[in-house]
Structure formats: structure tokens, C-alpha cells
Design brief:
By secondary structure, the chain is an alpha/beta fold. The chain contains ten helices and twelve strands.
Length: about 290
Amino acid sequence: MIYLLGGSGYVGQAYQTLLMRKGLPFRNLKRAEVDYTNPAVLAAALQADHPEFLINAAGYTGKPNVDACELHKAECLFGNAVLPGVIAQACTAAGVPWGHVSSGCIFSGARPDGRGFTEQDTPNFTFRQNNCSFYSGSKALGEEVLTGAPNVFVWRLRIPFNEIEHPRNYLTKLMRYQRLLEATNSISQLEEFVAATFACWEQRVPFGTYNVTNPGQVTTHDVVDLIQASGVCRKKYEFFQSEDEFMHVAAKTPRSNCVMDSSKLASAGIRLTPVREAIAAALAHWKKAA
Ligand SMILES: NC(=O)c1ccc[n+]([C@@H]2O[C@H](COP(=O)([O-])OP(=O)(O)OC[C@H]3O[C@@H](n4cnc5c(N)ncnc54)[C@H](OP(=O)(O)O)[C@@H]3O)[C@@H](O)[C@H]2O)c1
């Protein structure tokens, strides 16, 4: 049996769908029922069920967006930095291998040569540089907490999107925001992300950190062009003139925009669709919310 933490969330629901589709037995733990944030409760549950693998899709993201993390710092720090340590201790003690959903938002920009950041690069959008949002800082601390932990995958998700209209879907966000910030990013198709991460376990690739983004990079303008070409939303898209204007008008805390290199995952034999192809496919099968 597989344990899923945070299975009711945006990312967690995609894991539930994947595990159901595969017909694999799993238990979706909810804090309200089994408070897995409590070390003793989690340890007892692992002892009782002894799952073969645990997926941690729990964390604090802030609603409606990361600006909320600036106001709920204790919850953010606990959900993103302390909780991974609690899970690591419990899983190590129970001998349960596991995977942690991290984020690419602990990086900003690209490497000096213009290439994407690899798993060897030190995160550069963290509390250590004192340049980040509270959310990014907390996610980077979560990775630091896991340094040296045995039998764990750290999977970096980045700006999820798919074909289903949803306030958390990047494509929906671009269609709904009044004005957009021009930026260059690597991004992750949600169902490909969960399938690729679970394949890490199924195929027993070496534990460690993996950037799980669709190969390539896109600018906001590139994505808007794809949206317009698809006919899904033909409105006139307006852009901020600069990041300064965006910060002044629309945001409370800086956003991470970054290019990631996902070739380590590909070298392990797990491949995602090139990013433009994946965006075009999502738009071609676009499903409006009811
Ligand atoms: N969505 C994104 O854009 C994105 C991008 C990159 C990385 N990630 C990471 O992916 C993970 C899941 O994100 P998500 O978008 O699925 O978030 P979500 O929709 O808010 O769901 C997160 C789930 O985590 C559980 N949880 C445990 N401790 C929590 C806390 N202190 N505050 C709030 N929820 C808590 C909750 O489940 P129960 O209460 O039912 O147990 C909740 O349903 C997070 O670690 C996030 O940092 C997300």
C-alpha cells in the first residue's frame, strides 16, 4: 500500500487519479483524520500500515497566491520546512522510502551560460540570499532539512498546468489575470509530473533530487501566442511594462522565474513532452470548468 499525504490538494488529487488509474492500493491521509504533521501520530500510522512507499504532496502554498505566505509565516514555515523533516524522521525510523514534492521556485533566472539550473546548482532564491518570497525561502529550507536523508526523492515541480480550467492552472491564470508579467520559465504539465515522479519509484531510479519540468523554456509571450493560436481565449492580453511596475501594482513579494534543466530525469530514462508541445496539447483538449 502507498501512503499519500496532502492528497486532497491540487497536486495531491493528480496523484490520487494516477494511483486509481494504475489500480494501486493507497491511503489518502488528511490532517483532519490522521494528523500526519504530529510525529507520534505519523510514526504510529507507519508502524501499523507499513506502506511500501509514501508520497508527500502536503505543503503550504498560500491562497489565492504566494503573497498569502507573507501573512501566514508560521503555517508556511511549518508546512514547507518543518513537516518534511518530521516525515523524514518517521520514514527513516519505519524504513519507508518516500518522495517529497518540492519546487523549482527556489531558483531565479538561468545559469550564466543561459542554460537551465541543474540539481548540482545551489538554489539562488532563498533566505540565504535574502532576495526571495517567504514561500520560496520555506521551500528551500525544506530541501535543506532533507539533505542527507536516506531513501527519499526530492521532486521539483514548477508552475503546474494541464487542460482543465482551474484557478491553480498556469494557463487559466494567464487567461484570467488583467495584466501579465513577461518572464522566462520552465514549467510542468501536472499529470506528466505525477506520472514521472511515481515512475522514479516504480523504476527504482537512484534516490535524490530531480527537476521534473517539461524540457525547454517558454516566455509569457510564447504561452500567450499558443493560447491565441488555439482559439481557447482570444482576449487582448496586456503586459506590465516592467517587473518594478508588477511589484508596485500587483504583488507583495517577488516571484521566482527560472529556467530548469530536467536532463537528469531523462538520463534516468524518464522523459516528459517538450514544453511547447505539452502546452499546445493542453490547449487542444481544453476543458472549461462547469
Ligand atoms: N501548486 C503549485 O503551483 C506548486 C508548484 C510547485 C510546488 N508545489 C508544491 O506542491 C505541494 C502541494 O501543493 P498544492 O498546490 O497541491 O497545495 P494545496 O492545494 O494547498 O494542497 C496542499 C495540501 O497539503 C496539506 N497540508 C499539510 N500541511 C498544511 C499546511 N500547513 N497548510 C496547508 N495545507 C497543508 C493539506 O491536506 P490535508 O489538510 O487534507 O491533509 C492540503 O490539501 C506543496 O508542497 C507545494 O509547495 C506546488
